[in-house]
Amino acid sequence: MQKKFEIMHENQNNWQRIESVVKWANMTTNYFARYIGLSRGENLYQIKRGNNGISLYVAHLIVAKFPQ
Question: Are the CB atoms for 34 and 1 separated by under 8 Å?
Fold first, then answer.
């Protein structure tokens, strides 16, 4: 149970990091997803729900568009 909590907490932190960039860019989540090169926002919503963490692919897409 402790491990599951740690993973959920880590995924929430992942989403908070993404959300701060989305808000800074003044975009909706769906628009942000398309802007960075994802076909739809579902990948980001899965991170938000805590089902997935940030993959290296998604991290690369974000950094490529927002290196700062």
Answer: no
Predicted model pTM: 0.77
pLDDT digits (tens, 9 = 90+) for 33-43: 999 999 888 99
> Residue 10: is its pLDDT beyond 70?
no
DSSP string, 11-30: HHHHHHHHHHHHHHTT--HH
Residue 21 CB contacts under 8 Å (≥ 6 apart), including other chains: 32, 62, 66
3-state secondary structure of 54: coil
Contact 50, 8 (CB under 8 A): yes
The structure tokens listed for 7 are 């993973």
**Please, what is the end-to-end C-alpha distance for the chain in angstroms?**
37
